[in-house]
Amino acid sequence: MENELAIVARGLRKTYGENVAVAGVDLEVRRGEVFALLGPNGAGKTTTVEILEGYRRRDAGEVSVLGSDPAAPAADWRNRIGIVLQGLGEFDELSVSELVHHFAGFYADADDPEKVIARVGLAGKARARTHTLSGGQRRRLDVALGIIGRPELLFLDEPTTGFDPEARREFWDLIRDLAAAGTTIVLTTHYLDEAEALADRVGVIADGRLIEVAVPEHLGNRQQAHATVSWRTPEGVVESAETATPTDLVTELAARFGGEVPGLTVTRPTLEDVYLRMIGHR
Ligand SMILES: Nc1ncnc2c1ncn2[C@@H]1O[C@H](COP(=O)(O)OP(=O)(O)OP(=O)(O)O)[C@@H](O)[C@H]1O
């Protein structure tokens, strides 16, 4: 049902001269979903997202975003979408609070600026001039400007680049809050842990093609992958075996050792392992 889908793209294509940036992408994002686009540099993520945002023209394909074609949207369409832009240099002399209030003025039903400032963790910086913010604080301000209009659909292009680990965790909590409140979120990221932590589904783009869409646990048949069981022999040598039935092997080892197995670990391929395999690095 179109209604349950925030985004539908069919055969999306964009070329720059000889260079095919997006080579026929089919994509569906459900309402309320957090969808992450992963892919190496130059894969076509930003081009895809900017077409969906209405900032780039496609060469071919059908696109519907919140029921409108982004190339010719309905009158209130842009108000229903949040876009996290970077680098609003001309507003450098405004304070955080002034800038967020200024942006709130663009929307008929904007959120409370002070609440949004607190929500992105900038309450202590509300009076600071924006040019005095650190890179990570600046990015939080970008997010505040993206959500001030209470968007139904929020686009975030590499939102946590430059964040320290604590800021990333706080940002993830913010994204989860927004998702819990029903906001559909499309984000691009290079961080696999971020995709795994946030996304309901992940789409992997390589060379302008969407090569797989899956929930993070299922990406690249990760769940079917063999587990690696490692242990230490009485001589102190670390041995390991790949197996489809790790429980059997561990049970056998436990019997062999008469209880606790020294140095026992059971691992499966990480999201990073399967991702690198998918995009061709082995
Ligand atoms: N305005 C442009 N003019 C010409 N080529 C472009 C333009 N924008 C993007 N491209 C090319 O299109 C391809 C896809 O770029 P895009 O920015 O969509 O990739 P990306 O997946 O977002 O990469 P990154 O992870 O590095 O941000 C690249 O080969 C890029 O060089």
TrEMBL record:
PROSITE patterns: ABC_TRANSPORTER_1, ABC_TRANSPORTER_2
Keywords, ordered alphabetically: Antibiotic resistance, ATP-binding, Cell membrane, Membrane, Nucleotide-binding, Translocase, Transport
Main localization of the protein described in the UniProt heading: membrane
One GO term of the biological process aspect: response to antibiotic
GO molecular function: ATP binding; ATP hydrolysis activity
Subcellular location: Cell membrane
Entry GO CC: plasma membrane
Membrane topology label: Peripheral membrane protein
Residue ranges annotated for the ABC transporter domain, each copy included: 7-232
Pfam family of the protein (one): ABC_tran
Family: Belongs to the ABC transporter superfamily.
Protein name stated in the entry: ABC transporter
Organism of origin: Salinispora arenicola
